[in-house]
Amino acid sequence: MRFLLTAAALIMLVPAASAADVKYQVRDTADLVAVCDTTTRAPDITTALAFCHGFLTGSVHFYYAGIPESSRFACAPDPAPSRSDVMNGFVQWAGGNPQYMSEPAVETLFRYLAETYPCP
User: Fold this and answer.
1) What is the pTM of this model?
2) Domain membership flag for residue 71
3) pLDDT tens string for the chain (120 positions)?
4) For residue 91, what are the CA distances in angstroms to 32, 65, 84, 108?
């Protein structure tokens, strides 16, 4: 019985803790650009950039894991650019393409990658 009460109490705390910890939400391209933009000298810039790098890296790894090499439309050159170079390039590219700011961030990220790093 004690176990069930403890489990119930923990379950009730999880949503509250998760909601309190949500600092960055990427609902669209504008949100991703805001998190990845290094010119915003926010006090939590290190956390924001870590979130951005994680979003970009996770998206690319998911893409490479799910698409056969022969079907890819974006390919990393050799040598591959740094995460920071991709991040900064994406922010700059998105700034020049404001028509995509309300679109899903992953779609716009891959639009950028396909234009910047097309497969041979």
Assistant:
1) 0.77
2) yes
3) 443 333 333 333 344 434 445 678 899 999 999 999 988 766 788 899 999 999 999 999 999 898 898 999 999 999 999 999 999 999 999 999 999 999 999 999 999 999 999 998
4) 9, 25, 11, 11
**DSSP letter string over 20-33?**
HH-----SSHHHHH
DSSP conformation letters of 46-87: HHHHHHHHHHHHHHHHHHHHHS-GGG-SB---SSPPPHHHHH
Q: Residue 109's CB: how many other CB atoms inside 10 A?
A: 25
Instruction: Provide the number of structural domains found in the chain.
Output: 1
d(CA 24, CA 83): 19
Q: Cβ(82)–Cβ(35) under 8 Å?
A: no
Beta bridge partners of 118: 74
Contact criterion met (CB below 8 Å) for 29 and 55? no
Q: Domain containing 65: what range?
A: 23-116
Whether residue 69 contacts residue 52, with contact meaning beta carbons closer than 8 Å, is answered with no
Q: What would the two tokens of residue 37 be?
A: 């933009």
Question: Does 1 map to a domain?
Answer: no
